């Protein structure tokens, strides 16, 4: 039977197991958005099951994490979280003084606002980060997102913009985001056979999760936002990616995890409307900010995998680093027994 080198061809593309399915899903979602509803059943589930696949991915990934890696997760996740939010705060302060709350009304930057910039900078695409680190990193690198997940939602954007009042951050949502990983860690640490069994599923799920993630991207958003949306997406990758790269290297990484976090989360597109509902002064900015942030989601979802693959190729992948702080040192090999003296009588 004729063999077609599908896997080998996909892997020729940098980060191919992530990028190719993601782009395929995005193209189908853009050209034939009703495909999931038309076919329904299992086919529809492949397009809409990103959260379910991610939940299973999280459990299996957690099973392969040793409890000894917890300090590493706190250090890595906390550092990337602080840098990403720090860049959002800097951007908010700078552009807040330059243009204020209202969007720019004329010129090539018409529609750009402080709200759009901060919302795009503040929130990392967790699914994209975990899928990329599942390919290039180690389970502990994926687990670092449990700390970075604090970026999700409008709370930190409100803090950055200085909005008065309290923003709800339900503890159930926070616990629910971490629970699958914790359950996986418990199972994997209680039973090494379960760890081996579940860990094998991690690379298999990456293309399926990537396809479902891509199916949620509408490439027309980039067209609607025009060059301004494209430029803002590129700015997110570069402006946050460079500090994140060096922060990752300072915590013992190769820079790959930092670049993988230089994206905009899908739920960030909903933040401008929530901010405007909390403070009407941002009502005008929210209209164009929503489109710009949605464009950033698409642009960064396409650029970050390529940038991550390039970083891994040039600076090395975290998967190639030793787990010095996450695993017990290997026991010294027993000394070889001296060979018995050869018989002289033969």
From TrEMBL:
Keyword Cell membrane found: yes
One Pfam family it belongs to: KdgT
Biased composition (Pro residues): 331-346
MF terms in GO: 2-keto-3-deoxygluconate:proton symporter activity
Keyword Transmembrane helix recorded: yes
Region feature Disordered, mapped onto this chain: 325-346
Keyword list, A-Z: Cell membrane, Membrane, Sugar transport, Symport, Transmembrane, Transmembrane helix, Transport
Family stated for the protein in its record: Belongs to the KdgT transporter family.
Protein name: 2-keto-3-deoxygluconate permease
Organism: Rhodoplanes serenus
Annotated gene: kdgT
């Amino acid at each position: 039977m004729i063999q077609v080198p599908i896997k080998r061809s996909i892997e020729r593309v940098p980060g191919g197991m992530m990028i190719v399915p993601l782009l395929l899903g995005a193209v189908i979602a853009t050209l034939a958005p009703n495909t999931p509803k038309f076919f329904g059943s299992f086919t529809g589930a492949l397009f809409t099951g990103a959260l379910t696949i991610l939940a299973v991915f999280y459990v299996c990934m957690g099973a392969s994490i040793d409890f000894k890696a917890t300090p590493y997760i706190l250090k890595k996740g906390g550092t990337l979280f602080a840098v990403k939010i720090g860049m959002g705060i800097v951007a908010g302060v700078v552009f807040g003084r330059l243009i204020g709350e209202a969007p720019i009304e004329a010129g090539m930057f018409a529609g750009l606002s402080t709200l759009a910039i901060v919302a795009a900078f503040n929130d990392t695409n967790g699914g994209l980060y975990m899928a990329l680190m599942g390919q290039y990193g180690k389970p502990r690198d994926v687990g670092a997102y449990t700390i970075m997940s604090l970026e999700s939602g409008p709370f930190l954007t409100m803090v950055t913009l200085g909005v008065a009042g309290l923003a709800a951050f339900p503890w159930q949502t926070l616990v629910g985001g971490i629970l699958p990983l914790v359950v996986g860690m418990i199972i994997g640490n209680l039973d090494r056979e379960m760890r081996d069994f579940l860990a094998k599923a991690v690379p298999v799920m990456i293309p399926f999760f990537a396809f479902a993630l891509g199916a949620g991207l509408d490439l027309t958003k980039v067209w609607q936002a025009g060059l301004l949306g494209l430029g803002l997406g590129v700015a997110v990758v570069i402006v946050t990616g460079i500090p994140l790269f060096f922060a990752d290297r300072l915590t013992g990484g190769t820079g790959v995890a930092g670049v993988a976090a230089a994206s905009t989360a899908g739920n960030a597109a909903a933040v401008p409307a929530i901010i405007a509902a909390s403070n009407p002064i941002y009502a005008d900015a929210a209209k164009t900010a929503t489109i710009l942030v949605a464009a950033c989601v698409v642009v960064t979802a396409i650029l970050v995998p390529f940038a991550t693959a390039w970083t891994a190729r040039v600076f090395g992948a975290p998967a190639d680093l030793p787990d010095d702080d996450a695993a017990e040192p290997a026991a010294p090999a027993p000394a070889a027994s001296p060979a018995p003296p050869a018989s002289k009588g033969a």
